[in-house]
Amino acid sequence: MSVYFPQKKLPYLLVLPQLVITAIFFLWPAGQAVLQAFYREDAFGLSQQFVGLENFVDLFQDPLYYKSMVVTMVFSFSVAFLGIAVALWLAVMADRVIRGRMVYQTLLVWPYAVAPALAGVLWWILFDPNIGPVALFLDRIGLHWNHFLNGDQAMILVVISATWKQISYNFLFFLAGLQAIPRSLIEAAAIDGASSFKRFWDIVFPLLSPTTFFLLVVNLVYAFFETFGVIDTTTQGGPDGSTNTLVYKVFKDGFIGLDSGGSAAQSIVLMAIVGLMTVIQFRFIERKVQY
Amino acid sequence: MRKSMFATTVLGLSIASSSFAATEIEWWHAMGGANGEKLNEIVKEFNDSQTQYKVDPVFKGTYTETMTSAIAAFRAHKQPAIVQVFEVGTATMMAAKGAVYPVYKLMKDTKADFDPSAYLSSVTGYYSDVDGNMLSMPFNSSTPVLYYNKEMFKKAGLTTPPKTWEEVAAYSKKLLASGAQCGFTTGWQSWVQLENLSARHDVPFASNDDGFSGLDTKLLFNGPLQVMHITKMHEWQKSGIFSYGGRRSDSAPKFYSQQCAMYTGSSSAFGGMTRNAKFDFGVSSLPYWASEVKQPNNTIIGGASLWVLQGKDKAEYKAAAAFLHFLSTPEIQAQWHQFTGYLPITHAAYELTKKEGFYQAHPGTEAAVLQMTASEPTVNSRGLRLGNFVQIRDVINGALESVWSGKETPQAALDTAVKRGDMLLRKFEKAHN
Question: What is the ipTM of this complex?
């Protein structure tokens, strides 16, 4: 049965505020970026020159841009995978805790309240090769830590800082997801003699798949777009570009390098990549998800 | 341009209506911490010294943030009258002809008291055009020097600081033998170990007289001298003589914590050194290769200068000129120099500081000034004028890091850096034609 609204105008009027906000804060700046990508401009905007696709051609001829793409992929998938895996493990453990449950859960959610930039600084200090306690400890057990020089270590550091915050967020969703799974299913499996690992793998994990899928999308988008603060306060993309993600590169080229055209071209490519990723996720991965 | 003229008129009108009050101008700067407080003190002194003009200092964050926000403000016609821009932003400011009001012209137009020869030529050279006209007003200039740990030196049986890189290597071996973990570390590697290395040995860093005489500049820092120096540093790194500790001044803690006995870094780090080094330390000139030159050139400067922006009215420019004049007076300059460790930018300020006995009371503080004034700057030691210099520095940092981590040979790394840097220069050239 369908419901009909007699008014023609009211629905439009109701969505109008939303549309206006979208237009002002999204469409307009995005349109500006698209325009800018076809121009070459000096820093002060005194001279502007239409250059067609030159900014894009430059971009795709730049080996550093491909390097940045690889860096972004490694970074984003590491953050998403690590964030989801650790959060799932913590949630399963927290779900079993009976005494002091609230305290435990609250503590695990805390890091989410920390600003990304602060999280970056925190880990940065812990791992500082000259004064950081973790770095000094690693040195003592024979693992020489210097993220100023070692690109892989710098990557590990930014992945840890970016993931740490996200774990809390993922944890909350997993915990809610776990609590929504009917006890009867698990009990039935237990009666049938399934081990606790088998119960998790064959019953809990598949039933959590909508949550996991949702978190995968959210975490990838987070790693792609919202980790700017973490990188800016720690490695600034170094050493030698080994943590220079696409988003950070947009900022660096646009705001430090003052190359608005090149930077705008990059952000358009970035938009396209994320759009594509989301389509792939929903078309191919979602099919495997059981709701 | 048309838009900015319109903005000028509007601004002019709005200010004309309040012309009976003091003319107010904004000064955007990047001096935080103790230096920022000192800056506010100096501005207050200016504001209290007369009633015609009032300067509002506004702290805008890091150098990069200050420059970026000034540019954004200019595009939105809300620019300050004066902005502090770091040395690597010089080429960008100079190329923006419609945006900056050259200081020499400002001083002439407002008939302000201004004598270019009163300034240290090794400082103003960086900010002058090919005809020697000062385009911006030097404010806080520093230069690289060598800091050394006197106590560790004593333990190794050393009494004087090393003058040359040969000595740095020889001394470091003794220091390592006496228990030091590393000989020396460096801050600002591109600035100290390549830009200043080239200047000190009278070797070009880039074509076109280090970029002064044109936009079609090509980088030249992959020459024999630079490759030799970086190769040596890489060897030293393996034998523990040199230890890398990060891009900017991230390596200073290695010196503070007495892991390294020497540190090559900015002369303006003196204040921080005094606070953080819990040991007796000395300051000496930046080493040179005795095998390459008999008498080294002056070093080049870092730090920042003050740029006056277009789009203000006459009264505001009068205020700006008066303030810049005030900043250059020997008393203010000497105060600033003694407090911060930045160079005195005028001869008079240097003489005044000497007369006051400051250098005797604080040994080592004179090293930087002497190093800057020992010789007349040559085309290779005036300074660098490279477009997109911030990114070029980034490229150089990346290249050096790939040497330190053993991924690339010095020659290959510097060649790649030159190639990438040239691409950035071409981009800048295209945008300014």
Answer: 0.73
